[in-house]
Write a structure and sequence with these properties.
The protein is an alpha+beta fold and 342 residues long. The protein has a single domain, classed as Deoxyribonuclease I, Chain A, CATH 3.60.10. It has 5 helices and 20 strands. The protein has helices spanning 26-36, 78-96, 111-118, 202-222, 241-247, and strands at residues 21-23, 45-54, 102-108, 129-132, 142-147, 153-160, 172-178, 184-191, 227-233, 249-250, 259-261, 274-276, 279-281, 284-289, 296-301, 308-311, 315-318, 322-323, 326-327, 337-341. The strands form 5 sheets. Strands 1-6-7-8-9-14-11-10 form an 8-stranded mixed beta sheet. It has a 6-stranded mixed beta sheet with strand order 4-5-3-2-20-15, covered by helices on one side. The chain has a two-stranded antiparallel sheet with strand order 12-13. Helix 4 runs parallel beside helix 5 (241-247). The N and C termini lie far apart (42 Å).
């Protein structure tokens, strides 16, 4: 690893990520919130981004990361790693007009790459608190949440296990945040099982949906007006059963529902976050509770020519880092999605 940027001390708001579940005494947290003087998230952006295999260049013997090594199949060198970090930091700052208030990340290898990304380009301005747990995924890819300490404070975080027989899929990250008005927000960052196995994979995503919905119901049973944001790469669209039935997310603001999928509300025709053989759709989504939806100004994929290229067969597509084993030097095979608050 030639990157030397490593945080040697924990950020003031950082939650330790070595345990599967962590929390702080509520009284201590409330005192700290009062002293911090958080700013309102009004007008701020929340971003979620599948960053397409953000691996470092160091071998982890506990995971299948051999392709992403300098002598691996993808020739993943320090220069390529640095180039990707710069690209990702640019894309995130472009879509949020600076460092977003909250940044959900999908397909990150470990805490080390999160430290590097958080200190690259304009993202360094935020001095992000990083919430991350190592997941049981065979390749070692995880999800994470970066929290801008001016806008929110981490109160509690946990990794929710998605138990599927013979499948070591990613945990769901649940983070409870304290906001400027004394209210709390619950954020879930997801990366649900792949579609690689076709119809056989459908029950796996239904299981993931059940894990999230069960925790949402527990939260709402205690606080019916809880602000809840569920985001990530679901490997399903808003119309698929895992979202519409498993989560029960509605596509109509005027329908009485517990959850609303912003990626099927007021979306431009033909848009999406992912292009599969010329068909755009939203595998990446933002889903909110009824209490949060009045605060939403907009939510959509960030379409920008800098993040796209013209595929000879499939038209405009995300400018990815790799196509198979071919190094393209782009950003990601997904586009970031952006929620803007009123």
């Amino acid at each position: 690893m030639t990157m030397t940027r490593r945080l040697l001390t924990f950020l003031p708001l950082l939650v330790a990520c070595s345990a599967a579940t962590s929390s702080r005494p509520v009284v201590e947290e409330e005192q700290r919130l009062d002293k911090k003087g958080l700013l309102s998230m009004t007008g701020q952006a929340i971003v979620c981004y599948n960053v397409e295999n953000l691996f470092d260049t160091v071998d982890d013997p506990a995971t299948n990361d051999e392709d992403f090594l300098p002598d691996g199949a993808l020739a993943w060198t320090a220069d390529r790693y640095d180039h990707k970090l710069l690209h990702l930091s640019e894309a995130i700052a472009w879509c949020a007009d600076g460092p977003p208030a909250l940044l959900g990340l999908v397909e990150v290898e470990n805490r080390s790459v999160l430290d590097d990304l958080a200190t690259t380009g304009r993202l360094k301005e935020a001095d992000y608190a990083i919430v991350h747990h190592d997941s049981p995924d065979e390749r070692g890819i995880d999800v994470a949440l970066l929290v801008h300490p001016q806008y929110a404070a981490v109160v509690h975080d946990e990794a929710l296990t998605v138990a599927i027989p013979n499948d070591r899929t990613r945990d769901v990250l649940h983070v409870e945040l304290g906001l400027h008005d004394g209210q709390r927000m619950h954020v879930f960052v997801n990366h649900w099982p792949s579609r690689r196995d076709g119809d056989a994979s459908v029950p796996k995503r239904m299981t993931a949906a059940g894990v999230v919905r069960s925790r949402v119901d527990r939260i709402l049973a205690t606080d019916p007006t809880a602000r809840i944001l569920i985001m990530g790469d679901f490997n399903d669209t808003p119309m698929n059963a895992s979202i519409s039935e498993g989560l029960g997310a509605a596509c109509d603001r005027n329908t009485e529902a517990v959850l609303y999928d912003l990626m099927c509300i007021d979306q431009p025709n033909g848009h999406g976050s992912y292009n599969y053989q010329g068909e755009w759709d939203y595998l990446d989504q933002m889903i909110v509770s009824a209490a949060l939806i009045p605060m939403v100004a907009s939510a959509k994929a960030y379409w920008d020519d800098r993040l796209l290229f013209k595929h000879p067969r499939y038209g405009r597509s995300p400018d990815r880092t790799y196509a198979g084993r071919d190094y393209k030097g782009g950003y990601s095979d997904h586009l970031p999605i952006v929620l803007r608050l009123k």
